[in-house]
């Protein structure tokens, strides 16, 4: 091996060692633990204790159902909203565009505990501003934290508020990469702005939007913060418990690390499968 190559690997060695110790080995070890019954001492191999349990555990199916509901409703709504926001931010008619870009991106950098506390206050049954506005138009206040459907709607709203701006900035970068000549030629051909959006902008943005969809799918499959902090650990009655929250409950509350590892790998497999499905559906026809 040439000296320069050995030198390069020598400089990379500290990072590779840390990467293998804190990333590769935990992944491998977690997979091995998923085949062990960790409710007994010492741990013993048992496929049925963890992977077999997934097939008949109602808590797992409830968490999977809740996660997929959020995925199916929240992700399309958020991506559509982010696309509209990106088009608005890219408009030359908008003044102070840097300020608006920062404002839309700001929710991502807000502390998770802080924004969860704000949402709990805003949607409080007794003194929340949302219920006061609902009452002001003559409707009955909504018990957001005691009704499973209302709590699920709150989770979807919170996740959309937090991540729509982030995706809008990514889509905005894609918008700014589209040459102006394309729009100028379409304008000369008397193509309306609406037609330009659907027949020029969206097709050219397709790879960027697909990238945002994949990121959102992966993030939704790992959703933990909002149901844990906003709806009090997946309440009411598990109505907003996600796979990420179930994993936490099994691993760090029940100390059932084997089952938690099996759930983690199931989450990863589902995220990969759904992402590949999106990539297949969004592929360019040959």
Automatic annotation (TrEMBL):
The chain crosses the membrane at residues 12-35, 63-87, 99-123, 150-175, 196-218, 257-281. It holds the Pfam family BPD_transp_1. This is Sugar ABC transporter permease. Residues 64-278 form the ABC transmembrane type-1 domain. It is found in: Cell membrane. It is a multi-pass membrane protein. The keyword Transport applies. Belongs to the binding-protein-dependent transport system permease family. It comes from Rhizobium leguminosarum. SUPFAM superfamilies: MetI-like. One of its GO terms (cellular component) is plasma membrane. Keywords: Cell membrane, Membrane, Transmembrane, Transmembrane helix, Transport. Coiled coil: none annotated. GO terms for biological process: transmembrane transport.
């Amino acid at each position: 091996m040439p000296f320069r190559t050995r030198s390069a690997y020598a400089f990379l060695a500290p990072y590779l060692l840390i990467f293998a110790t804190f990333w590769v080995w935990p992944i491998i070890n977690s997979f091995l633990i998923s085949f062990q019954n960790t409710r007994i001492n010492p741990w013993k191999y048992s496929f049925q204790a963890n992977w077999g349990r997934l097939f008949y555990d109602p808590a797992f199916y409830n968490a999977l159902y809740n996660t997929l509901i959020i995925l199916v409703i929240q992700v399309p709504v958020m991506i559509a909203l982010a696309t509209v926001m990106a088009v608005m931010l890219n408009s030359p008619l908008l003044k102070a565009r840097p300020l608006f870009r920062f404002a839309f991106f700001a929710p991502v950098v807000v502390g998770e505990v802080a924004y969860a506390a704000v949402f709990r206050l805003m949607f409080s049954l007794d003194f929340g501003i949302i219920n006061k506005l609902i009452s002001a138009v003559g409707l009955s206040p909504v018990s957001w934290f005691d009704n499973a459907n209302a709590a699920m709607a709150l989770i979807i709203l919170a996740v959309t508020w937090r991540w729509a701006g982030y995706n809008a900035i990514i889509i905005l970068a894609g918008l700014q990469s589209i040459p102006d000549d394309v729009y100028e030629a379409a304008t000369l051909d008397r193509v309306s702005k609406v037609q330009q959006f659907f027949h020029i902008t969206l097709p050219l943005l397709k790879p960027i939007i697909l990238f945002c969809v994949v990121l959102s799918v992966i993030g939704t499959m790992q959703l933990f913060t909002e149901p844990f902090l906003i709806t009090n650990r997946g309440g009411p009655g598990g109505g907003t418990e996600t796979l990420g929250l179930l994993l936490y409950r099994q691993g760090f509350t029940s100390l059932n690390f084997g089952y938690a590892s099996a759930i983690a790998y199931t989450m990863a497999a589902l995220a990969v499968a759904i992402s590949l499905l999106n990539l297949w559906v969004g592929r360019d026809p040959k």
